[in-house]
Amino acid sequence: PFVMVFKLAGVNWAAALINFVVLTAAASSLNSMLYSSGRHLYQLARETPALDRFRLNRLSRTNVPQNAIFTSAGFMVLAAILSVIPWISDSFTVITSSSSGVYIAIYALTMLAHMRYRKSQDFMADGFLMPAYKVLNPLTIAFFGFIYLSLFLQESTFIGAVGSTLWILIMGTICQIVTRKNEFR
Predict the structure, then answer these.
(1) What pLDDT is stored for residue 105 in this prediction?
(2) 83-89 long-range contacts, Cβ below 8 Å, gap at least 24?
(3) Is 55 left (phi over 0), alpha (psi -120 to 50) or beta?
(4) pTM for the complete prediction?
(5) Would you tell me the crossing angle of helices 91-119 and 133-150 to the nearest 10 degrees?
(6) How far, in whole angstroms, is CA 43 from its chain's centroid?
(7) Is 119 helix (H, G, I), strand (E, B) or coil?
């Protein structure tokens, strides 16, 4: 809108300046995301022996986790490619709805883990205790379920919801297999 206002006012240099500022901010954001996702992926690979085969836990000669950064960049390229697939009308909505589905599942699992922890022998009643957890945890999980199911109700978020469901099922299965493998060692 600002660019259009300046163009209509005949101040073309201001419109160009605003475009420059917006593009610089976007590039800075992309750079920051690439840096942080590369470092996070590197740290995850260091803590997860199953990821050794991907060599994401290696540093370059200059101590840069370049394999993890290149992998993160590859996923960013996939996001850009997603925007040109004809049957996907809004790639941003697909990405946000699929990540929302995964986040919702993570928070629901956190609530389940909290309930199990409170009932376990390992529970220590120190620090802040969630009030009325026997009621609030199930209520929160039900709310998360409602939000997750609502992703399937809109055409724009349906593909992302299906994608997040597949991701959760596939990753959950892989985690179960790896956990069982490690139990038998």
Answers:
(1) 94
(2) 88/159, 89/156
(3) left
(4) 0.63
(5) 160
(6) 16
(7) helix
- For residue 64, the one-letter residue type is V
Single-letter amino acid code for the residue at 171: M
* Residue found under tokens 């990540």: 99
DSSP state of 38: H
Give the pLDDT means over successive 10-residue stretches in the chain (185 positions). Answer: 79 83 91 91 86 85 92 88 76 85 94 92 85 93 96 91 94 86 71
Rg (C-alpha) for the chain, rounded Å, is: 22
**157's tokens:** 């978020």
Structure tokens at 120: 């376990």
Which one, of 35, 25, 22, lies nearest residue 76 by Cα?
35
In the numeric block, the tokens 């209509």 are attached to: 8
